[in-house]
Automatic annotation (TrEMBL):
This is Reverse transcriptase. SUPFAM superfamilies: DNA/RNA polymerases (SSF56672). InterPro entries: DNA/RNA_pol_sf, Hepadnavirus_pol/RT. It comes from the Eukaryota. The lineage of its organism: Eukaryota, Metazoa, Chordata, Craniata, Vertebrata.
Length: 269
């Protein structure tokens, strides 16, 4: 039946004027297939990095030891491999940012300085630690869209912050030193605090953080929108390690909990 359906599909595509590249196609029905560096398993319904892609990762990462010198081309090659794997490596997008930040700190042009040699620093080694863990390549990710997620809405100003989750509210006032911080930093800090407080209700679920920013002056729309996209992309998997999102919280942060939050029968103790 599967073979007959395959032939029927090929005939239909041919009638529509399409040409199938048989060398790059796998026309034999199978439950497991490799495509663009990914291994797609229809039985477990999970996607993994293909073995050839993992070997390429290991080969390139072997060059990045503390004190070694590598070319900018090698750095960009690693970045490209990361970009191709973020969909199946746990926290891939979040962990990729650390290495990107290190590459940008080199202040080299990707066209003129491809063969420029740079020294692998301790910061670079730390940024690659997640990618040198074999288990992260074997874990894989479930295929398909997220069927359900929890939504946490936050609001931030230079004076304070607030958050709402399913009718439960919480808010706080920034200490004087934080009131001088950039509004985008405060917006991310508000999300961190909200997720921390609502953790008993959110643990094990996908979370969509919807931030609002209130400022006295007009903010640059592109800058605010960029941070909104970053928050949704990087904070949505709540299993991400929050300590990588923000530095340690100031001890003098003033908490003001809404009575509505504590009066909820499901509120955390």
């Amino acid at each position: 039946m599967a073979v007959r359906n395959t032939q029927s599909l090929l005939s239909h595509l041919s009638e529509l004027g399409f040409s199938v590249n048989r060398e790059k196609s796998i026309l034999t029905p199978t439950h497991c297939i490799e495509y663009l560096g990914l291994k797609l398993d229809a039985v477990s319904y999970r996607a993994y990095l293909s073995q050839s892609r993992v070997e390429k990762f290991v080969q390139q990462l072997a060059l990045f030891h503390r004190g070694n010198t590598v070319t900018l081309r090698a750095c960009l090659r690693i970045s490209g491999l990361m970009a191709s794997a973020i969909s199946v490596v746990p926290q891939g997008l979040l962990k990729m940012r650390d290495f990107q930040r290190w590459v940008l700190s080199l202040r080299l042009d990707s066209r003129r300085h491809l063969n420029r040699k740079v020294k692998v620093t301790p910061d670079c080694v730390i940024a690659l630690r997640h990618w040198k863990t074999p288990l992260n390549f074997k874990a894989g990710r479930p295929m398909g869209a997220v069927s359900m997620r929890r939504t946490v809405t936050t609001d931030t100003s230079l004076r304070g912050w607030g958050a709402v989750y399913e009718g439960r509210t919480v808010n706080g006032v920034w200490p004087l030193d934080l009131q001088q911080a950039h509004i985008n930093y405060l917006a991310l800090l508000a999300i961190f605090l909200a997720l921390k407080l609502f953790l008993p209700f959110l643990r094990g679920h996908h979370v969509l953080a919807d931030p609002c920013i209130s400022v006295r002056a007009n903010a640059v729309p592109t800058e605010v929108n960029h941070h909104h996209i970053w928050v949704v992309a990087d904070v949505s998997p709540f299993r991400a390690e929050k300590r990588h999102l923000l530095p340690p919280l100031p001890a003098q942060v003033i908490w003001q909990f809404s009575p509505r939050f504590w009066s909820s029968p499901n509120a955390p103790k």
